[in-house]
């Protein structure tokens, strides 16, 4: 509830302290800010330090904590994923190795006009930072990209982050219709894209296509559930507008959230 770590994994605080030499209280401060988005005034009262020092500790230590936790976001071998496939995937979708989607985090309006334009999201009607997130069929986060301006399309993000470099030939990716222009790029790399059938203006889907759309939607629900868990970290919540000063560590905030999600109970029982 307070720092995103369960009782069973609380030993991580001691490990973090040992490997990074960051004071235990300072680790807790960073994780609490990450989880609850407490104001620095609250942290000042909670930890008995000045407001400016609380801010300084958070911005300085978060990248170190993020680099320690990043190995928990593991890019698994496709054969290992296949051996642990949920039942719903085993019949027709046994080649699926990952499910991808993008999520947007609202930020304060930047002061520079160029940054305003680059972060403007038509979908959210505000300034956002956008991330590509990928999970295995059983709900383990196996990739999160660096942040892109809200203006970037889903396909642009996939092309410009290193997500495709970590995929093996013969991999099958499950995505929504927004990624349809990715098909050609993936085909060249020997990777298959599985997505709902496209709908042309004025045309109706056939019964088979409707059935396929429903099945894919029911399988894609796992990435939606992962994103819902990410949003439980209040800094990444819908409409929690991130302060401009904190935007520079936002990549670290989402890495920590995804790493800690992987230590939680499995999404699929």
UniProtKB/TrEMBL annotation:
Cofactor(s) required for function per UniProt: a divalent metal cation
Molecular-function annotations in GO: metal ion binding
Entry keyword annotation includes Hydrolase: no
Claim: Metal-binding is one of the keywords in the record: yes
UniProt keywords, alphabetically: Metal-binding
Name listed for the protein in its UniProt record: DDE Tnp4 domain-containing protein
Domain DDE Tnp4: 100-262
PANTHER family: SPINDLE AND KINETOCHORE ASSOCIATED COMPLEX SUBUNIT 3, THAP DOMAIN PROTEIN
Pfam families documented for this protein: DDE_Tnp_4
InterPro entries attached to this UniProt entry: HARBI1_dom (IPR027806)
Signal peptide segment: none
């Amino acid at each position: 509830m307070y720092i995103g770590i369960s009782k069973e994994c609380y030993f991580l605080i001691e490990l973090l302290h040992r490997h990074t030499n960051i004071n235990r209280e300072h680790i807790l401060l960073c994780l609490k800010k990450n989880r609850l988005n407490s104001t620095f005034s609250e942290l000042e009262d909670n930890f008995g330090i000045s407001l400016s020092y609380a801010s300084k500790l958070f911005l300085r230590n978060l990248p170190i904590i993020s680099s320690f936790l990043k190995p928990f976001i593991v890019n698994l071998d496709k054969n290992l994923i296949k051996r642990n496939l949920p039942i719903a995937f085993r019949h027709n979708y046994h080649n699926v190795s990952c499910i991808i989607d993008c999520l947007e985090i609202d930020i304060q309006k930047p002061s520079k006009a160029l940054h305003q334009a680059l972060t403007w999201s038509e979908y959210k009607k505000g300034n956002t930072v956008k991330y590509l997130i990928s999970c295995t069929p059983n709900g383990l986060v196996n990739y999160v990209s660096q942040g892109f301006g809200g203006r970037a399309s889903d396909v642009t993000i996939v092309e410009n982050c290193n997500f495709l470099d970590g995929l093996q030939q013969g991999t099958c990716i499950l995505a929504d219709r927004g990624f349809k222009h990715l098909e050609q790029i993936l085909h060249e790399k020997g990777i298959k894209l599985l997505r709902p059938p496209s709908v042309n203006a004025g045309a109706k889907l056939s019964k088979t296509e409707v059935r396929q759309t429903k099945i894919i939607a029911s399988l894609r629900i796992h990435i939606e559930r992962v994103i819902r868990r990410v949003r439980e970290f209040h800094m990444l919540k819908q409409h929690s507008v991130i302060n401009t000063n904190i935007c520079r560590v936002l990549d670290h905030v989402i890495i920590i959230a995804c790493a800690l999600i992987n230590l939680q109970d499995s999404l699929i029982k």
